[in-house]
Amino acid sequence: MKRLFSRAPLLGVVIPVFGVEDYLDDCVRSLLAQTHTRWEAVIVDDGSTDRSGEIAEEWAARDHRISVVHQANAGLGAARNTGVAHVRGDHLAFLDSDDVLPPTAYADLLGALRDSGSDLATGSIVRWEDGALTEPPWMRRLHRPLRRARVEDRPEILGDVFAWNKVWRRPAWEAAGLSWPEGVRYEDQPTTTRAFLDGTFDVLDEVVYHWRIRPGSITQTRESSVRDLSDRWATKRMALASVRAHGSAEVEEVFVDRVLAGDLWRYFLLVPGCTPEWWRLLRSGVLELWGRRSLVHSGLPPVHRLAGWLVEQDRRADVDALMRWVATLEGPAPRAQDVATGAWRLSVPPSVLDETTVPPEALALRGHEIGG
Q: Where does the Glycosyltransferase 2-like domain lie (predicted)?
């Protein structure tokens, strides 16, 4: 006979902490305010030099559901892995210590998993910046509701690379052998990619996470440094290897064009003033990851598709000039229409780039880029 009442699932929450004494209280309060109350949290103090570790211990003394592990600084991935080893629960979640949860976040995610039987559930997020909460349009597009899906049903979901807007079933996490890469930044993407490829998932349109945008945080600092770019290439390489091992040509094409290329524009902006070593690393990564399929086919904005093609061709001076010109524009780049064919393309001033040295596909605009 079916039981009339069943115990709520135990959720294990891993909170890595480093140098967040000004934010940790807000984070923990948002966990305590969850409408799903059956959880245990492990705060992993990753060698903080401020009061973060003390604040964590104060919270542990107030609530028996919270425990603290202190370790020498080893980075975000290692701290998360330490937390997984210490936390209990038949479900698993990750919460960054400078962010906060809306009250029903875990109830929404766990409720979806209860109804669907999927391996993980993911919800939308808002950016919390200058006191305002804004849902990125691309996150809204990715999070059209879906239940018990596989990656072939929505390959674009691989662009939802974040660790912290998700809840996993613990047995599925362990069966897939998941963990977070250690010793590199941008560690979220390889693991979330594998999770979507290996299992079934639910997509929720509810906002389940408030991502605080603050200067100097790990995810917001993008230095034009060789180490930063090396880490980015390393994690992209890991994710792409998993996608290729999955064996779906359709998923790989969407991943390479629309997901893997998605943040490259940020790096193209750093070309003016970069060192020769950084330029060589940028180009080698572009050729390695998109050598089979030029960035002109990617989902990047038109100017950055052009920049990608110029990087492929080792035309640093032209990328430099193009990015400096783009920085002066107040809106979209100018466009022109070919009189003979009617095709639309970018229109770049001759003082910036000699368009006769560029193939038409590197300048071409797509239908949705023409209107307006």
A: 13-151
